[in-house]
Amino acid sequence: MPVMDQIRTAVESHPVVLFMKGTPQYPMCQFSSRAVQILLAAGGAAMHTVNVLEEPEIRANLPRYSNWPTFPQLFIHGELIGGSDITAELAESGELARMLGEALPQ
């Protein structure tokens, strides 16, 4: 499957997807670690994650797909939300918990 189709499938098959460096248990950069902690605190335990360090083709092409240059990248309902800074801002306002509550089964 072409890499752009792999990305599209991941984004469309899961209500919440975090493309990150490493895994939730072993994040490999501070921004990915921060995003995971924020998502878990806001109710995102059922999120799907993709380790871009194990998927070099996805890592190389996701910025083209999303038009966002850095990692992590959070998608909710197929829409790019942003990276760790935007995720943190949404969490502070309470908006992230609302979005996750609508996207994920409780």
Automatic annotation (TrEMBL):
Alphabetical keyword list: 2Fe-2S, Iron, Iron-sulfur, Metal-binding, Redox-active center
This protein's name: Glutaredoxin
InterPro entries referenced in this protein's UniProt entry, alphabetically: Glutaredoxin, GRX_PICOT-like, Monothiol_GRX, Monothiol_GRX-rel, Thioredoxin-like_sf
Binding site for [2Fe-2S] cluster: 29
Pfam families in the record: Glutaredoxin (PF00462)
Species of provenance: Novilysobacter ciconiae
Similarity-based family: Belongs to the glutaredoxin family. Monothiol subfamily.
SUPFAM superfamilies, A to Z: Thioredoxin-like
Gene Ontology molecular-function annotations: 2 iron, 2 sulfur cluster binding; disulfide oxidoreductase activity; metal ion binding
Domain Glutaredoxin, chain residue ranges per copy: 16-81
Alphabetized CDD domains for the sequence: GRX_PICOT_like (cd03028)
NCBIfam families, per the entry: Grx4 family monothiol glutaredoxin (TIGR00365)
Signal peptide range: none
Binding site for glutathione: 21, 59, 71, 84-85
Recorded superkingdom: Bacteria
